[in-house]
Amino acid sequence: MATPRALVFSGYGLNCEAETKLAFEQAGGLADIIHINDLIASPKQLAAYQILAFPGGFSYGDDTGAGNAFATKLRHHLGESLSAFVQHDTLAIGICNGFQIIANLGLVPATNETYTQRSVALVANDSSRYVARWVDLQVESRSPWLAGITDLSLPIAHGEGKLVADPAMIARLKANRQIALRYVSGPVCEYADLPANPNGSTDDIAGITDETGRILGLMPHPERAVFFTQQPHWPILSEQLKRGGKPIPAPGPGVAIFRNAVNYFR
Amino acid sequence: PGVTDNVASTARESMEDLLGASFSGEEGVFTSRLLLLSGDLDRGVVEQVSKRLANPLIQRTTIRQRKDWERPAVRAITVPVVQLAAQTAVVTVDLALPDSELADLGSYGIMDPGGQRRGPLALDLAAMKAIQSYFKAAKRPPTDIELEAIAQTWSEHCKHTIFADPLDDITTGIFKAHIKAATEKVRQLKGDADNCVSVFTDNSGAIRFDDDYLITHKVETHNSPSALDPFGGAITGIVGVNRDTIGFGLGAKPVANTYGFCLADPADETPLYRDKAATAPMLAPRRIMEGVIEGVNVGGNCSGIPTPQGFTYFDPSYKGKPLVFVGTLGLIPAKLGKRLSHEKAARPGNLVVMVGGRVGLDGIHGATFSSVEMDAHSPATAVQIGDPITQKKFSDALVKEARDRNLYTSITDNGAGGLSCSVAEMAKESGGFEVDLETVPLKYPKLAPWQIWISESQERMTLAIDPAKWEEFAELMGHRGVEATVIGRFTDSGRCLVRYHGDTVLDLDMEFLHEGLPKLRRTTKWSKPPSRPAIIQAKDWSQLATRLVGRLNLASNEFISQQYDHEVQASSVLKPLQGRGRVNAEASVVAPVWGSKRGVALSQSLYPSYSDLDPYAMAAAAIDTAVRNLVAVGADPDTIALLDNFCWCSSDDPFRLGQLKQATQACYDYAVAYRAPFISGKDSMFNDFKGFDGGGKPVQISSAPTLLISSVGIVPDVTKGVSLDPKAAGDLVYLLGATNDELGGSELHDLLGVDRLSGKVPQVNATTNLKLYRRLAEATSRGLVASSLSLTRGGLLAGLTKMAMGGKLGMAIDLDMIVAQARSLAAALGSESQGRVLVTVAPENQGAFEELMMPGGNVVTWIGKITDQTNLTVRNRGVVELSVGIKDLLASYRKTFGGF
């Protein structure tokens, strides 16, 4: 089969499109950055892609709520195209601001496979402050994005990352195994003595999927963890490897997620 | 009214998009924040709360009882529509005035027909007389817009007259003689190894990154606006310096931000007023601190630019005006097709195009206002709020698309002085311009021509575009949601010509506008203060160590580092917080070109506490530290470039000018000695506040003479970068460089309450140091150094505690040798002698390390070991002088700003 292609959105303050494209390419895929207005002008382009990526950023400066204005624009101009796209055997990912966008659109958690209803919200962190640090994550779902991964550490950077929903919805996500990633205490928290949950998210939820697992929304940034030297504790890891006579690995932990997506279509 | 309201713009855009309709001129969207308070509150308390939350210069507050709120008539919200009275388009200004009235016109501005002064022109009598004679020869009076335009271009903020004019016997001025000359000398000395590409001429400076890319750097200050509205001042500062990157060459991409805040103690609550009647309060230090931190947060985070490096520095002298330093590192391919990316030129016939935000009243007189001291006349219109998303949209459209499609010939930023400066500056490339002011898009109607021309409304670039490319450019901007408008044409007429609805309102000779400002010879009067011996009494070093790490200038800034995204763009290597103990680093490393192992190290350094003792040594120390901080993390010392930001005070006082001359002389001497060229710089010469205390007593506060040196250097292989945290018990600890009895101006002196003007300030021996730094770079590239920390404020004691906290490993240190060098234990621990780096080395590398480092007379002292204990222990002649738990150090380190 031909190399899988990912469409990475850009425009209106999204800002992680380039590193998201890089991550897909590092994983062996192809990726194009398409400005939302160019896709609105010719939505048929979508047909050329198997993967849709909503990258991180600050669309519309988070004004009127993180991800809200961008989601409104998408729904208005591309709602049907997006619904049709995700109903096929495709993959989609929303990272950080992208997660906030697809949660507003209703692409996740999309219970009952209605991809248009917002049923979870990402609200201001308990600290009421933007936070940039690394977190440890435990994988809980069978999403193809997370195949073969049990735990990993990634960076986060957000002001509105606390997931809230009504308790019935949370219970349902749990029962359906739609909770993809939870914040846990792992190597990074132990290294830097940091609390596991960085934002007060309900049940330590860091990411969720739709019912099929094909659409993943997550606050952490796997595309910022594609090199060994991006990890906060790389200097000590590198020193320990060197003293143990071992080589220093090149890729970082985030690549696995993108590799899973590319391999899904192989 | 008229203050940028980003939430409203987004709401408006969403509505227009969703409804497919646009707003008419009479309609608009405005937002307000509703805060609900509950409890048994009296009105006085609620008013206090509202004063804490709102800035009366830009915000209005209304307090309502719940029962009143329920009555719609009372609830009625005031909509902040800008209502401008119709104005006479242009007035002429009579310059046939006696000198005293001419001077008043220069100081307080043009008189409106209504009898109100418009705000400072900041032109002295000599400048006013030059203008007077120009218009006498032209046989006509100037228009208001001509006078305002000249004032912008001639402002200290734009012309840097103090650096440009003769000073004592330095006829070419200190910028040419000390700063620029240093760069020229370094470039000549380095010959083929010269890595400068563009220095001093463009919006940023640039050096070579590798064969394919250049990196640019620029550091700005935004002090005066930050004093009035700290959030607005800081956010417009950071997005403004981003535009100095976008406006470099044909457009560089911002890849890292830096910040530095010089502030007063946030616990200081004694109020200051701008007026005698105590009705116009200055913001309290804590408000200023929180505001400037938040401003850089929103500006940097929203723009998707990582902020890996920054500092805070506290001194009571910053209570009148904070110093807000903001910097941006940029990346640009060296070549764009066949063009060299750093070369640009507007050509005659090119269109003058304004891109980005619209023009309003905000930011009028920013350039002239920041060129004078702050007092009751400071204009509120100088306050602005940034809109990073508008800028992000055009930044992406220009730097990621239009640039590579060769759609424009030149580009510059609209900063101080707005269009009047950006267009006139670019017109130097072609030789003239003509602009039709009525074509400039406005935020609201009825602005007078002079206001349109000099407004500093943010988020705008000025471009020169070949008419044949305009259509393609306009279409691209349209698709990216970016407003772009043709406002005129570049010419080679030698004239600056501005029309308003067909009438010529400004017609100036280019030569006069740019070169007509008379030079003023200034003189200095300064002599080194007599040295006073320092009297030190220090006993309990364990307790002093704990108190030292909790001091404002040394305590953890984690709350800032964590709220500034330093991971975006996936370039972070050595982060702002390092090690298990999350200790703030002196330098950061980013790898901005994916797939390349090359990186860029960034640092900043300043020693204002040395200025009054020895301004020459102050500047030397700042340069040495800035260079050394980079070498310590793995930068190649032969690639380092510097930026100078002078924030001086009372620069019309010969004494302050004398200190300045000492400092710039040191800049020349040490830049040359370290082969580290200056590539860009900026100055802000009047950081003075004149106001009153609560009792109406006059108060003057002048900031300590402050020189910030920012450094940028290339790390050949980022995987060899070195963090500050020790890695393993058993590793050896070395102090590189000599420790002298140099406690003057030190953090330890301040902690002990020693007379601030006593003792000797560290002296820098650049030749000795550079030799050592080159060896250290070699050791690092060979992987012999496990951790390293450049010693700065707080000396060896601060260094040891930071290392111990960073690695959360014990340290057993023996200071016999260092005490012998420094002559006392206090000097050994607290002296801020320059040229020193603390390193740890794995035992198996001891031989190779010593063999490499020790020859050639380098001072390399083995001072102890990393242990698996929980204490930092320091011995002198066998006696334990200090033994402190790392937990206790960390608790003190994090407590100071724990509530922020």
Write the layout of secondary structure elements.
The complex is a heterodimer of chains A (266) and B (900).
Chain A: E1 5-10, H1 17-26, E2 30-35, H2 36-41, E3 51-54, H3 68-87, E4 91-95, H4 97-105, E5 121-123, E6 131-139, E7 151-158, E8 162-164, H5 167-175, E9 179-184, H6 187-192, E10 205-209, E11 215-218, H7 234-243, H8 255-264
Helix pairs in contact in A: 3-4
Chain B: H1 6-19, H2 43-53, H3 66-69, H4 72-75, H5 99-108, H6 125-137, H7 144-154, H8 156-159, H9 161-164, H10 173-190, E1 196-198, E2 205-208, E3 213-221, H11 223-228, H12 230-246, E4 253-263, H13 285-303, E5 309-314, E6 323-333, E7 335-336, E8 339-340, E9 351-356, H14 366-369, H15 388-402, E10 410-413, H16 418-430, E11 433-436, H17 449-454, E12 460-465, H18 467-479, E13 484-490, E14 495-500, E15 503-509, H19 510-515, H20 541-549, H21 558-563, E16 572-574, E17 577-578, E18 583-584, E19 587-590, E20 599-605, H22 615-633, E21 641-647, H23 654-674, E22 678-684, E23 688-692, E24 698-702, E25 706-715, E26 732-736, H24 747-752, H25 766-781, E27 787-790, H26 795-807, E28 810-814, H27 816-822, H28 825-830, E29 837-841, H29 846-853, E30 860-867, E31 871-876, E32 879-885, H30 886-895
Parallel strand pairs in B: 4-5, 11-14, 21-22, 28-31
Antiparallel strand pairs in B: 1-2, 2-3, 3-6, 4-6, 7-8, 9-12, 9-13, 10-12, 11-13, 14-15, 16-19, 17-18, 19-20, 20-25, 21-25, 23-24, 26-29, 26-30, 27-29, 28-30, 31-32
Helix pairs in contact in B: 5-6, 10-23, 12-13, 12-15, 13-15, 20-30, 22-23, 22-25
